[in-house]
Structures are given as structure tokens and as C-alpha cells.
Request: fold
Amino acid sequence: MERYQLKEEIWWVGAIDWNVRDFHGYETPRGTTYNAYLITDEKKVLVDGVRSGFGPELLRRVRACCEPREIDYLVVNHVEMDHSGAIPSLMKQLGDVQIFCSRRAKDALLLLYHGEGVQDWDITVVGTGDELSIGRYTLTFLEVPMLHWPDSMLTYVKEPKVLLSNDGFGQHLASSRRFADEVGLDLALDEAAKYYANILMPFGNQVQKLVKQVGELGLEFDVIAPSHGVIWRRSEDVARVIEAYVGWSRFEAPARVALVFDTMWQSTEKMTRAIEDGIAQEGVECSVFRLNHSALADVARAVLGHRAFVVGSPTLNNGMLPTVGAFLTYIRGLRPKNRLVGAYGSYGWGGGAAKLISAGLEELGLDVMDPLELKYVPTEDDLEACVDYGREVARRVKAWGR
Ligand code: FEO
Reply:
């Protein structure tokens, strides 16, 4: 089988999932990979597993480097089932392997795989700063609780400066290529942004804490190898993705606006076009997402990449359209910060959608503009009010953060 080398004696032995299109609610039109790494030092170490069903592919890749029974250690950086699902079946092939993971990972493994032999596994708990010599290389462990599960951990291979970063720096991107420079940096960074927005956005503080910790420990990275998507191996790519993570964790974004809406009889759509026009009149870039035509994962990516988002819905049964409600629920979980937001929509007899959206956005602690509601089909004057609303959004976006 084709072998993919990161550094001397460090190999990618993961699996490619060309078919997955829904990753717990995150649409993945490009599929994904479940990356595992094999280090063939004096001790042979497998770092991370793969999703259930992909174990045979991992084993075939391992066999291109060594026999699975020669593996001494298995490092479990993270127990979510896309990485641990195949471990019970792999354990039957690996022989007397010693597992290293965080305390919380051990607790979770016992709860996840009871009935699958977990009680017989030889598990050693490690924590931040613990080191494991495997021959010429040394592994250093770094716990990153809630980045993005309580058990999450990173493994740093000290001498070749390789960070096995698990979910951090990943992308849901299936490819026959293994490295960011092979698929193109723009694509890799764009998918990394989408991944960050949908998986890591709520954990900006933890990202900043990790960056600080890395600085204090004096760690340098030649290669960052995540558990999904392509690997960052060129120094300029490593620097770019770290810089991007720092910016995203601070909710930095260009001065542009996303309009996120749905419509019933096109009145709210007309309002959207007029607001868009007002934003353009102020020279500010605007993206528009109609929710019943857009993947929520893409809209979340837009929330990360725009300094403002304004949400539109007509009033339906005294509330908002279900697609808009679903968006608000999703975004509430992602906990965006430092965003200017607004709400608008048309109504027939009793309004309410825009006010409800506004109230939902207030709960997130965002900078909320007064909502704009119009009755039935907007008149020319109403549309002028929408243009003015768009101009006001744009002016505030431009002024913000100066
Ligand atoms: Fe890729 Fe949190 O699992």
C-alpha cells in the first residue's frame, strides 16, 4: 500500500472516508479522513485510531511499515468515536499494546466500550508535560480539555518537532493527497476555517490558553498533523494556520456583513435585497444566505468570517420560520462573540419574528441593533427604510474595532 511519510519513521496510516456527508449535523460535501499516525522507532507507536469500520484500512497501511503485533504503544488523544470507534476491533489485532491517554479519556473509554473488552486493556494515564521515550524520539503529552471534549490531548514528537494535533487544525476534506501544499493552501485554510467554525468556535479561550502554553513550553512545530484532512508541513503553511487560529479564537473578522434569511411570500427577500443594497452603498462587502438553500455549516463559516450578521424571517404563527429557528439554535451552541447583529422581517397582522430573533441574539451577548419589521409587502418607502438599515449596519461595521 502507498506509504505517506511525515518525517523519518513517522507515517500516516489513517483512512479516507469519501462518502460521509453529515458529521453530527455538520454537512461535509467533501467527505473527510480519519488520520492515525505510526512511529516506527525502537518502540512502535500508533497515535489515534479511526472510525468504526475503517480499522481494516488502517491495518493495511500499518502493514506497509510493520506488523500490527509489533506495535508497543497506542496513544489515544481523543475518544470521540470518529477516532476511537475502531479501537475495540484493533485491540484484537495489536497484541499486548499499552495505551496512553488522559484521565478523562480513560474514564470515557470505560463508558464507551464496556462489553467490548475495555476492562482488559492496559491503560496508562498521562498529563500535560509527561514524556515517553520511544528510542531516538520522545513523545510529550499536552492535555487540552474542552478542545473540544474534556478528554482531548495533543501529542508532540519532540526531536522532529511534529505536533499530532488531533481535531485541532483539522479539516473535513477527503483527498488522495496528504499534505496542504498538495491540495492548495487556500482550499486547506478554507476547510480549516469551516471546521473551526463548526467544531471549535465555542472554545476560543481554550485555543488562546493552548497558544500561551505552547509559548511557555517553548514548543516549535515543523509539521502539524491533525486527525482530519491534510497535514501542514511547509513552515509557511504551519505559520499561516497558527495565525488563522489565533485570529479566529479572538473572533477577528474582516469588515463585511452576512445576511442570513428565509422568506415565505418574498417580502422578507425584498427586504434582504434592499438591505444588501444599503450595505453596498457604503462600500462594504456582503454575503447572502437563504437558509432553505444553504448548509448550516457554511452559514456558521460565514458567522466566523464576517464582522456582522443580520438575520431575517417573516412572522409565522407568531414566531419565525423553522429554518431560522434551526439556525439560531445552531449558532447559540457555537457561541459567537464580538459580532454586530440585527434582525428584520415582514409580517401580516401580528408581528414578532424580528423581535424574537433580536431577543435570541441578545442572549448571546452580541451587539444587537434594533429590529426592523414591515407589514405585508414592502412599499417603496419601506424599501428605503431597509436601504437605510443596511447603510447603518455597514457604517457601524466600518467604525467597529478601529
Ligand atoms: Fe474528530 Fe472530536 O472528533
